Amino acid sequence: MEAIMRGEAAPDENFRANLPAEEKVLNEFAQAAQAPPQEHAIASIAEAHRPRLTLMATQLAELERLLGKTERLSRWQDVRVGLREIASTYSPIRFPGLPEWKRAQFAAQKTRELLTLRKGETRLPLSHLLDRTASSPLAMVFPFEQMLGELGLGSGAAPVIGLSPQVVMGDIGVLRFAVAHQLGHLLESLGGQPTFTCTLLVKDDKLLSGEGERFANAFAVYLLAPLDEVQQLAGAYPRGKDWYWDAAQDVAATFGLSPRVAMTHLLNCLEESNAKQMLDTFRSDSRWWQYREDVRDHVESAWDDERRDLRERVGDLPDNNVQEALRRPRSATFEQFVSEASERGMLEPSTVDDLRVA
Ligand SMILES: [Zn+2]
């Protein structure tokens, strides 16, 4: 509290000096944009953006302490213990032979229990997911248009999840997946595993991800749509020739998934041995486009609160351009806290300015 009153919550010169220079990032961006982004290139450019998220996480926490709004931070202290336990129980060290997706599935099931979702409670709204994990969503422009999000975790702070404006405005299924995916990374980092920079991208409705993304991807989908509940839902359908189209659409609407994730997940949950091949067949079928439209409409109407809720937390969306990517992330909560602290005379006007431009 003392620190923020002296204006130390605003980043000092050292911090600013360590941020990537605008010119350098623009060059890297221009180079990367010419060729299809390679995983290591995405990772290194995305890594350059992590300090901004970490800073925002720390500033939010400082402001919460200053204003005496420490409820979220205490919740984080509690939930962190539970998440850490899950992370260590299902760590790759403990289950060396277990496939990544299986480990993620167990961890996701335990996380659902930790988030006090009862068995048979299918709906997992983003508000519940964010509140229970004490995570704050932010809007942040990333150097790659298709990049979905990134996680920030400063010391003494609760997690922040940076989401690109395209994700916040786009397909609700993708948005939900992006948040759950970052919580997968959160679990990995709490488990003491090397933290990967998120290289999850979305192109059309296709999720592209690197090697290090397997756990977070599987964790996300099983967290949103548990295996036994998908099986139960699918079991209600008589299997006919066109069975999968309707069943996948129902899976998407019930659990709030994107068209492609819903179909892939349905095939995996039913343990189809040639799931990959089946997915390719569906995707090249002329009905795929109609299926995609139908799923989006259904998910949009079944989960229409999701985007509104998230927009409220995130506030104004930044412009979508590379320069914007170099500036601060956006958070409605942050703006509100700064205004409140300023009105209550807790911050010097110069500190307020520093906080707002940092
Ligand atoms: Zn990722």
UniProtKB/TrEMBL annotation:
Entry protein name: IrrE N-terminal-like domain-containing protein
Species, as recorded: Cystobacter ferrugineus
